[in-house]
């Protein structure tokens, strides 16, 4: 009897241990599932929060641009904003429509160059990606030289430091560009198979064209405003 009892006890202990392990694994899986659900929910609300911040930022900025453009549209100081700048900034007489065509043409040229760039990116992806990575460094360096030329030593040094940091960043990521382009090609093939995504891209393009028109209108109003050069420069930035 004792032998039978002893022989039965290990199997029963093993069965209880295995059942305990299974229940523990199930509890862990359920816990992991709950954790994943919580993480997804938090990410969902995180995305909604930052999307709302971005939309509010665009609305506020668009309102400011519209006000600054309307203030000098056809009538000088239509909204009587110059009273806040009188006395400490130089007066300047101009109208929004005096500068708007220039900014509109510049924006149209920018759109044309971006479309040409996109077409070349589809044909010569690796070469265009390398150019796009290096062009920001060149731009910062040129702006730095122009700032030094205009005796803006602080901004010249700031843009020079920015160009140096951008150059170091380019050196560190230049070897990863082929893999990046491979991922972009796969993503492009995937997107072309989704008509709804293409519709969203076209809608976003139309929205950006409208935003460019609003920005050129507001920027023209800033240039035509009664503020001095420094005030206009800071507003444009």
Topology:
Elements (H helix, E strand, L loop, with lengths): L1 H70 L24 H28 L1 H25 L3 H21 L3 H16 L2 H29 L5 H8 L1
Helix pairs in contact: 1-6, 2-3, 2-6, 3-4
What are its keywords?
single chain; 237 residues; mainly alpha; 7 helices
Write up what this structure looks like.
- Belongs to the CTL (choline transporter-like) family.
- It comes from Brassica carinata (Ethiopian mustard).
- Helices cover 83% and strands 0% of the residues.
- It has 7 helices and no strands.
- The chain has helices at residues 2-71, 96-123, 125-149, 153-173, 177-192, 195-223, 229-236.
- Helix 2 (96-123) runs antiparallel to helix 3 (125-149), helix 2 runs antiparallel to helix 6 and helix 3 (125-149) packs antiparallel against helix 4 (153-173).
- Residues 1-10 have low confidence and may be disordered.
- It is mainly alpha-helical and 237 residues long.
Concise structural overview:
The chain is mainly α and 237 residues long. The chain has seven helices and no strands.
Q: Largest beta sheet, briefly?
A: none
Q: What is the gyration radius calculated from CA atoms? A: 30 Å
Number of DSSP-assigned strands = 0
Residue fraction in strands? under 5%
Mass-distribution shape: globular
Estimate the helix proportion, in percent.
Answer: over 70%
Element-by-element helix/strand order: HHHHHHH
Q: Which structural category do the helix and sheet elements fall into?
A: mainly alpha
The helix count comes to: 7
Rounded mean pLDDT is 75
């Amino acid at each position: 009897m004792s032998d039978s009892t002893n022989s039965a006890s290990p199997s029963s202990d093993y069965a209880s241990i295995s059942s305990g392990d299974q229940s523990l694994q199930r509890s862990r899986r359920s816990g992991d599932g709950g954790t994943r659900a919580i993480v997804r929910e938090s990410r969902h609300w995180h995305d909604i929060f930052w999307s709302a911040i971005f939309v509010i930022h665009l609305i506020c900025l668009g309102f400011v641009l519209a006000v600054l453009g309307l203030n000098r549209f056809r009538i000088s100081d239509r909204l009587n904003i110059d009273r806040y700048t009188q006395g400490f900034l130089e007066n300047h007489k101009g109208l929004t429509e005096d500068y708007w065509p220039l900014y509109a043409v510049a924006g149209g040229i920018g759109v044309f160059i971006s479309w040409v760039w996109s077409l070349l990116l589809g044909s010569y992806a690796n070469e265009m990606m390398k150019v796009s990575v290096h062009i920001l460094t060149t731009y910062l360096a040129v702006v730095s030289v122009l700032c030094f030329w205009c005796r803006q030593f602080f901004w010249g040094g700031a843009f020079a430091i920015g160009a140096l940091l951008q150059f170091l960043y380019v050196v560190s990521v230049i070897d990863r560009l082929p893999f990046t382009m491979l991922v972009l090609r796969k993503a492009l093939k995937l997107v072309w198979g989704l008509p709804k995504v293409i519709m969203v891209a076209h809608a976003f393009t139309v929205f950006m064209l409208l935003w460019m028109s609003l920005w050129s209108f507001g920027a023209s109003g800033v240039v035509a405003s009664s503020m001095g050069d420094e005030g206009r420069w800071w507003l444009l930035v």
